[in-house]
């Protein structure tokens, strides 16, 4: 993207009718490590690839609990994400205090989208440099997956992925999403991890250290699966990769025999 | 000597125009509320055909105490209901059933009344809230002027707490039919008319059952028979010939 004279303030339109500052903020989302979300008829699963700055540092937490029935995955500026998460957590608590009931997710999302939009129309502020994938369950037990972006646009998805190299995850999800509705929670988790596995950089692998999963569902409060608890699911992935290797070897053998 | 400054903000210290008891009872299929239609200005019977039970969406609210505070509370609840139905939210992939249940409204009123009491400026009311709870079961709850909440199968405010509750406690069963519940409430309202100086026999009923919410027009209780009670016709004894005077 080239710099030009219309990109200094968020309140300045470019001649093509674009808000360049907002678009630059959306670039920031693409720099964050990948986050995927998908849902069945009863459960919504988020998966995230945790990045660590160096071998000495811990992996950055990417899945946050907003309420018993709402979880949030982040990609982009972590500090902005935490500020938004705190806002959502406060809204959830206030709603529960006032009305005695968990906040309807669509209501929280509407307020969140408005909060994003406000920053694109005020001179003194900047857009949030983070994309969020929000998984939730409504009062009737129906799960919903929402995605926000710095522009203030809010969409609901059957499945989505954001962050670096997330196109490979989106391709995988597009291929399989029609089967998700009736998947069990465990199957959804494996799908999420399989989608994430395509987003790791270079020779790295998806491991129990850099993968994480969050679940919300009908009769299922927020649950975070990290570390060793992730192993049984990661192992299923490796099997699939191993199966691919075996098939490759068989083909090679048969080719060798033919010549 | 400079005159003392008069404070421009005042806090509620006493109610002016008041309604008396409101009764509520849960029966097999729903909830029934009853209240008379009298507004008192101290000992004056100021207005005799004023409904103290109001429906807002799927909830019925009955108020005793300061009537102007009740009118303000209804304004707030109606504005909230309108906001819910008119604020457009992004179309979800599935339609979300929205709308406050009676239990939500009860919680909201708790927050409202408690925050006012914390500023020493209470809504001087005791409210009964009737409808459905979050699980779809019949709901009856009360909120008083200091924000106390009670949920129960039968509740009475004001004088009703002293005169009607003993009768309700004695007669209530979980499988009351609507007819039985109504008869019980009317009996209590008669007793209240006889013994509460600020009550009248012109009453109003409200029902929340299945999915319907109905508030009746005011009607008069039949109290004619009561005046034929023996005590009113024949005094039991006299003090000497001149009444002991």
UniProtKB/TrEMBL annotation, chain A:
Source taxon at top rank? Eukaryota
Q: Which UniProt keywords apply?
A: Cytoplasm, Hydrolase, Nucleus, Proteasome
Q: Main site of residence?
A: cytoplasm
Its Gene Ontology cellular component terms are: cytoplasm; nucleus; proteasome core complex, alpha-subunit complex
MF annotations from Gene Ontology: hydrolase activity
InterPro entries linked to this entry: Ntn_hydrolases_N, Proteasome_alpha, Proteasome_alpha-type, Proteasome_alpha1, Proteasome_asu_N, Proteasome_sua/b
Where would I find the Proteasome alpha-type subunits domain in this sequence? Answer: 6-28
Q: Which SUPFAM superfamilies match?
A: N-terminal nucleophile aminohydrolases (Ntn hydrolases)
Which SMART domains does the UniProt record give? Proteasome_A_N (SM00948)
The family annotation for this protein states: Belongs to the peptidase T1A family.
Name this protein carries in UniProt: Proteasome subunit alpha type
Organism of this sequence: Fistulifera solaris (Oleaginous diatom)
TrEMBL record, chain B:
What organism is this sequence from? Fistulifera solaris
What keywords appear on the UniProt entry?
Cytoplasm, Hydrolase, Nucleus, Proteasome
Which family does the similarity line name? Belongs to the peptidase T1B family.
Entry's localization field? Cytoplasm; Nucleus
Lineage, broadest ranks: Eukaryota, Sar, Stramenopiles, Ochrophyta, Bacillariophyta
Q: Which GO terms describe its cellular component?
A: cytoplasm; nucleus; proteasome core complex, beta-subunit complex
**Quick one: where is this thing mainly located?**
cytoplasm
Q: Which Pfam families match?
A: Proteasome
Q: Which GO terms describe its molecular function?
A: hydrolase activity
> What is the protein name given in its UniProt record?
Proteasome subunit beta
Q: What does this protein do?
A: Non-catalytic component of the proteasome.
Please give a single GO biological process term from the UniProt record: proteolysis involved in protein catabolic process
Q: Which InterPro entries match?
A: Ntn_hydrolases_N, Proteasome_beta4, Proteasome_bsu_CS, Proteasome_sua/b, Proteasome_suB-type
């Amino acid at each position: 993207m080239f710099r030009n004279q219309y990109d200094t303030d968020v309140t300045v339109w470019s001649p093509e009718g674009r808000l360049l500052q907002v678009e630059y903020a959306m670039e920031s989302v693409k720099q964050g490590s990948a986050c995927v979300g998908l849902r069945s008829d009863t459960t919504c699963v988020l998966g995230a690839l945790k990045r660590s700055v160096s071998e000495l540092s811990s992996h950055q937490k990417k899945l946050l609990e907003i309420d018993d029935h709402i979880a949030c995955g982040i990609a982009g500026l972590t500090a902005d994400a935490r500020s938004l998460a705190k806002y959502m957590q406060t809204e959830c608590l206030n709603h529960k205090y006032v009305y005695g009931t968990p906040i309807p997710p669509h209501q929280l999302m509407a307020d969140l989208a408005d909060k994003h939009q406000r920053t694109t129309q005020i001179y003194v502020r900047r857009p949030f440099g983070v994309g969020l994938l929000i998984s939730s369950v409504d009062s009737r037990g129906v799960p919903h997956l929402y995605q926000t972006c710095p522009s203030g646009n809010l969409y609901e998805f059957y499945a989505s992925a954001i962050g670096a190299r997330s196109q490979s995850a989106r391709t995988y999800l597009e291929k399989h999403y029609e089967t998700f509705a009736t998947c069990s929670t465990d199957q959804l988790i494996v799908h999420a991890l399989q989608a994430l596995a395509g987003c790791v950089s270079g020779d790295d692998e998806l491991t129990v250290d850099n993968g994480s999963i969050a679940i919300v569902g009908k009769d299922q409060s927020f649950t975070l699966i990290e570390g060793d608890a992730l192993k049984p699911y990661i192992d299923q992935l490796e099997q699939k990769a191993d199966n691919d290797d075996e098939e490759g070897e068989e083909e090679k053998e048969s080719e060798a025999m033919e010549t | 000597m400079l005159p003392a400054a008069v404070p421009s903000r005042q806090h509620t210290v006493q109610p002016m125009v008041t309604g008396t008891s409101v009764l509520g009872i849960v029966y097999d299929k729903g909830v029934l509320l009853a209240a008379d239609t009298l507004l008192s200005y101290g000992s004056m019977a100021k207005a005799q055909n004023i409904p103290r039970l109001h429906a807002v969406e799927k909830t019925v609210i009955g108020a005793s105490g300061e009537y102007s505070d009740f009118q303000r509370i209804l304004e707030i609840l109606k504005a909230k209901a309108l906001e819910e139905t008119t604020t457009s939210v992004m179309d979800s992939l599935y339609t979300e059933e929205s709308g406050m249940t009676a239990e939500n409204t009860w919680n909201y009123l708790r927050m409202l009344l408690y925050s006012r009491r914390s500023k020493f400026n209470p809504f001087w009311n005791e409210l009964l809230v009737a409808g459905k709870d979050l699980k779809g079961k019949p709901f009856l709850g009360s909120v008083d002027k200091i924000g106390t909440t009670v949920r129960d199968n039968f509740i009475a405010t004001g004088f009703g707490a002293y005169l009607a509750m003993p009768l309700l406690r004695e007669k209530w069963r979980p499988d009351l039919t609507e007819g039985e519940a109504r008869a019980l409430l009317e009996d209590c309202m008669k007793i209240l008319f006889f013994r509460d100086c600020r009550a009248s026999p012109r009453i109003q009923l409200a029902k929340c059952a299945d999915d319907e919410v109905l508030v009746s027009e005011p009607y008069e209780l039949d109290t004619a028979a009561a005046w034929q009670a023996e005590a009113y016709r024949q005094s039991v004894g006299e003090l000497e010939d001149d009444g002991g005077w």
